[in-house]
Design a protein that fits this description.
With 55 residues, this protein is an all-alpha fold. The protein has helices at 3-10, 25-28, 32-43. Helix 1 runs parallel beside helix 3 (32-43). The chain is globular and about 35 Å long. It is a peripheral membrane protein.
C-alpha cells in the first residue's frame, strides 16, 4: 500500500489526507483495492459514529 494511504488509513493521520490528491494516478493505482478494503473495514467498524443525514 502506498505510504500516504498507510498514514491516513492505518495510522489515522487525517492531516495527510489532502496530500493524496497531489499524487499521480500511477503512484496509487496498485494500492486502490487494498485502500478500499481498509475504508470498508473502517466504515463498518462499531467505533465509527454514524451521524444521521438531515434532509
Amino acid at each position: 500500500m502506498h505510504h500516504l494511504f498507510q498514514l491516513v488509513l492505518e495510522q489515522k493521520d487525517l492531516s495527510r489526507a489532502g496530500d493524496l490528491f497531489s499524487l499521480d494516478d500511477f503512484e496509487i493505482e496498485g494500492s486502490l483495492s487494498e485502500a478500499l478494503e481498509q475504508i470498508r473495514s473502517i466504515s463498518s467498524s462499531p467505533e465509527v459514529r454514524r451521524t444521521p443525514v438531515r434532509t
